[in-house]
Sequence to fold (444 residues):
Amino acid sequence: MQLQTFPRCPPSEGNMFLVWRRLHKWKTHDRIDMDGKFFGDQFFLKNLTRGKRCFSRRTGASISCSNSIGKDPFIPSNENVTNAKLIYAVAPAMGHNQESHPESNFRVPAIVNALEKMELTPKFRGSKIIELQNLKPASVDDIASVHARAYISGLEKAMDQASQQGILFIDGSGPTYATATTFHESLVAAGAGIALVDSVVSASENCQDPPIGFALIRPPGHHAIPKGPMGFCVFGNVAVAARYAQRVHGLKRVFIIDFDVHHGNGTNDAFYNDPDIFFLSTHQDGSYPGTGKFDEVGHGDGEGTTLNLPLPGGSGDIAMATVFDEVIAPCAQRFKPDIILVSAGYDGHVLDPLASLQFTTGTYYMLASNIKQLAKDLCGGRCVFFLEGGYNLESLSYSVADSFRAFLGERSLASDFDNPAILYEEPSTKVKQAIQRVKHIHSL
Ligand SMILES: [Zn+2]
Fold:
């Protein structure tokens, strides 16, 4: 059965859809009944009877995942974090994979390999860089702070079916799949983010300049809406961490920056009425899922604490540097956050196959460096990055690695990776208009 059997693929998803067509080699699959109580009317579940499964849970990265849900994530000792500039966690979800799907289990290992190659791991940097070990899954209660319990239990129950049938499609957009390990591995991904929040907050209580956290996790999270999965995303990792930071650490005001090329609609929806969580998303205008318009600014008590900035296709380094200076920084300064969380998607890179912005390795270095400084200026340095998109393994890897260098305060190596010859002129007039419009709406 071919791709046209997918009932929902929004027109706005054009690029993603085309790439998907190109990459995908579907085998026969049949629609099965779905319990609407669990996923709601708009979700459906399919099985792929001959889909490929991969049950390897580990990569070359040093990680071990607990099989039991724990309440106390591993936190490095205060002594260890005093000198660290960076704490990261690796949760590659090796069993959550579908052959030829862009959101594949090659992604995190590719990043880890680049970090090794560029000598950005504890092996090369000693106490400057810490890799969190013994990651534990988030608890169902943690996930339920953002998602409907019916969705969580429905996904857990679907795992039996997944193990019998190989792969399930849990949402048409993307499409989003699940394998037999998806539930557990998605809990581990969210748990890694939570553990990094614990570590960074703990460090900030003992030093002025705590390390930045970076969750190298998948599946990604920012499209997952409160009642279900969406757009490759299963649980809203950054949203779960935001609620956790509030509940467990008493950090009332959370500022979320989402620079993935797609609108973080799931995070947007989770906090649309919440005045204490500011969600700021930059994304390519017209890209998947088509939400994130200028006038989506929050509702009720949360009116004004959602900022959406759709950028015209072709926007690149100059556009994003201006956006940081004129929108992100003043917005954060006005909000006065207690912690900054970042949905770090690398699919705005000029080489990424799913979109058409012109970010470069240098753009991501600038963002990492500036956001680190913003956190230092505004909230005691408390800041955790969460991996979202990024589907060209090379540009993804080097962009994350150069972000690591920014956190370490080292110079960018972007000129080694970026090729200015492939860039074309940014649509500066349209960018300027977009920035002016968002500044006007939000009185910046
Ligand atoms: Zn994306």
In short: The chain is about 40% helix and 15% strand. The longest strand covers residues 277-284.
